[in-house]
Design a protein that fits this description.
The structure holds 2 protein chains of 2 kinds.
Chain A (H helix, E strand, L loop, with lengths): L7 H14 L10 E2 L15 E4 L4 E4 L1 H6 L6 H13 L5 H14 L8 H32 L8 H13 L10 H10 L3 H11 L6 H12 L24 H8 L6 H9 L6 H4 L4 H10 L5 H22 L11 E4 L3 E2 L11 H8 L8 E2 L2 E3 L12 E6 L13 H15 L4 E6 L5 E2 L6 H7 L12 H10 L4 E7 H8 L3 H11 L2 E7 L4 H6 L1 H4 L4 E6 L5 H13 L2
Parallel strand pairs in A: 1-3, 8-9, 8-11, 11-12, 12-13
Antiparallel strand pairs in A: 2-3, 4-7, 5-6, 9-10
Chain B lengths: L4 E2 L1 H10 L8 H13 L9 H11 L2 H16 L2 H8 L6 H11 L5 H6 L1 H14 L3 E2 L4 H11 L1 H37 L4
Parallel strand pairs in B: 1-2
Classes of the chains: A alpha/beta, B mainly alpha.
Amino acid sequence: MSPPRFTPESIHQCWQQALALWDVRVQLSPPEPHVPFRPDAAHQNEPLAYIDLEKRQVFVHFELLEAMGAAGSLTAVLAHEIGHHARFPHTLGWDAELRVQEQRLLPGLKQSLTNLFYDLQVNEVVGRTHAEDLCEVYRGFQRVRKGRTAEVSPLFCFYLALYEELWGRPPGDLAPKAQLGLLEERYPGFRAEARMFAQTFWALPSPRLQFLYFCGTFIRYIDSPGDVTYLLPLGGDVSLPDVDDLDSALQSGGRWEDALDEAKERGWLDMPGASKDEGELDRIQRVTEHLPGAGSGKLRRALVGRHYRRLVDRHLLKLPTAPSQPEPYLRTTPQAWEYGDDPSAIDWTLTVLAKGHLAAAEPLRRELEADVPPPSELGVPSVEVYLDTSGSMPNPEQQLNAMTLAAQVLSASALRKKATVRGIVYSHVDPLVSPWMYDEETARDFLLHYIGGGTLFPFDVLETLSRERPDALRVIISDSDFLANVAAEGNMKLLVEAVRRSRALVAFLALPDDQRARKVLAPVLKERRFRLVVVKWLSDFGPAAAALSRALLEN
Amino acid sequence: MRFDLFDIRLIQKQLAAAPIVSPYPHDLAVAIICDTFRLTEGVRPPTLADWRDLEQRYKHPLWKEQVAMLAHVLVSTSLREDTAGTLRRGANTRQIVQDFFDAIEPLTAEMVRSNAFRQEEFLRKWVRAVDGLVKDEAARDSAARLDQLDYKKATYELKRAEHARKKEAEKREKAIAEAEKRAAEARGWRE
C-alpha cells in the first residue's frame, strides 16, 4: 500500500506530467506500487522503479522513494520509466542487439551495462526539465546505501560525474567528494574524461556509435568484467530480451560494421574483442555464458538450435520447380458445341476432321485443363538416425559439428515429408534414444545432444530397435571408429541381421577413402538393403546428407 | 552607449531553427563580420591587411571554416545585434577577432553545428571576446561555465588519461587472452 504522501490524485498528476514530457503519444496503464521481492529484507536492495517491457507496466517502490527523501521526484522517476518504453530501448530487439555487441566488446561481462546506457539517454531528456529531481534520486540513493557499503564503485562514480558535467553541477555534487581525489589518482584524467564524454556522447549522430563510445569509455572503470555487478537507482529497470530477440540480434552483425569502423577510426575501441571476426556459435557462447543459473543452458541450446536450423535450410530449401497452380494446356475430350457456349472453345480442326461437311452445323468444343502432377507422397518410412558424438567431434553448441548437421538435415528432410524420426545419440556407453518424433523442433533439440567420450556403436540398441520397427530406414553417421566397432567379434552378424530387418541401412561415414571400409564391411555390402556413403571432407557432410535424403526419401 | 546582454539559450534556439545553408565563401563571411562591427558607431572593423595577417597567423583550412561559421551565426541569430549593442566606441576589433579565433582553435564547423556543448562554447567565447555579459548570469558563473566547456583544455587534460588508458588496455588484453585460453582448454575436444 502506498504511504499517505502519495495519494492516487498526486500519482495521477505526476503520471500525466511524466507522459507529457515525452513528445509522443503513448498509452500505458498507470503506475502500480512495487511489491517487494523479499518483504522481510531491507528495502535498499529493492528496485526503485522499473517497467515490464512485455506487459508495458510501470512499477514504483513508493516507500523507498520516500525513504530516499526524493518523494518530490516522482514525476522524474515516472518520466524515466516512460522513456524506456517510448524511446530507449523501446523494443527488446534493440536491447538484444546491444547485448550481443556488448559481449563482443567486453567479453565475459557479468552484468550488462545496457541499462546504464539507456539511463544516460533517458536522463538527458528528462533532465532538460527535471535535472534537480533526478539529482535528488541519486543523492538519496547514496544516503540510504551509506553504511551498507562504505565505498561507491568507480563505475558508479564515473556515471555520477557524467551527470555533474551534463547538468553543470560542481564536482562532488553527486559523486562522493571524498573519493574524487583517489579516483583521479587511480584513473588519471578521470574528470577530464567525464567532461569529454558528457560533451560528446549525446551529440553523436547514431545510437550504435553512441553505444560503442559508451563501451569504449566505461571499460576503463571495470576491473574484472566477470565480477562486475552494480546496483544503481533506476539501473535495472528494463526487462531481459527473449530467445527470438537474441537470435535476430545475432544475425545483425552487418549493421554494426560501419559504426565499428568509425569507432576504431576515432580511437575509441582499443578492446581486443572489437576486431575479432568470430563464428556465430562463439557469439552465442559469449552472449549466454555469463548468464546465471540453468536458464543460460536452455537459452544457449535454443539459440544453437536456431543456428542449425538455418544451416539445415541452406541445404534443404529449394525453389519450387513446378508452379503451385499450373497453366491449363491439356485439351479435354470433344463435346458437342451448343448455342450459348463460348464460340472460342470450338476446335474447328477436329470438327472438320470428325464431321466433314456437317462441320458448320455440329461444331465440337474442347476445353483446356491443367495437368496436375500426381501427389508425391510415396509412403516415406520411419527414419532412425544413429549419431556418433564421440570426442573426435566438437560439441555442436560450441563449434560446428558436421555430423550433427548431417543428422539434422536428414531428420528435417524426413519430417518435412511427414515421416517420423528417431534419434540415437551415442558415444561410449549409455546411448541416448529418443522416442519417435513428429516435429522438427523436438528432433533438432534432441540431435544437439553431445556425449564426447570414446566410440562404441550400440549394436544392442540397433538390434532391439530393428526388431521393434522392422520397416524403418536406418542411417548411421560416424567415422572410421565405426569400422573398428564392426570389426569386433559378433558385431558384423548383428549388423547384417539388422540390415535384413530394415527397409534400408546406410552407413554414412567420414573416411579418407572407401578401400578400408569396403574391406571391413564386405559381408554386409553384399546385402541388397545396405548402402555405404563415404564423405572425405567434414564440410561435405551437410550437402551429402541433403543429397542422401533426396535419394532415399524422394524416389 | 547601448549595453546588451547575450541570451545564449535564445541564440541556440534561433540557430536550431535556422535553415541549413551552404558555408559562405570566405570573402562574404569576412564582409558579414566587418559589417557587424560597423553597426556600432565609432568602431572600425579589421582592415584587409589585418585579415591577411590573421590568415597568415592561422594558416590552416579550419580557420576559414570557423570564419564562415561565425558569419552564419551572426546572420541567423540575434548575436549580431547583441554584439553591436555591446561594443564600445574605439574597440580594437583586430584584437577581438584574434582573441576569439585563438580561443576556439580546435573547433570545427561540424562540431559547432551538431554538438550543443561546442555550440555554447563557440557563442560564449565570442561573448567573452567582445567583453559582453550573458543574460541571467553573474560574470563569475559565466567564467566557470566557459571553463567547463573549454574543449581545448579538456583535450589537453584528456591526453593525460590516454597514457594511463593505454597501459590499462594492454593489461586488459592480456587478461582477456588468458581467459580465452582457459575457456578453450575447458571446452577441450580432441582433433
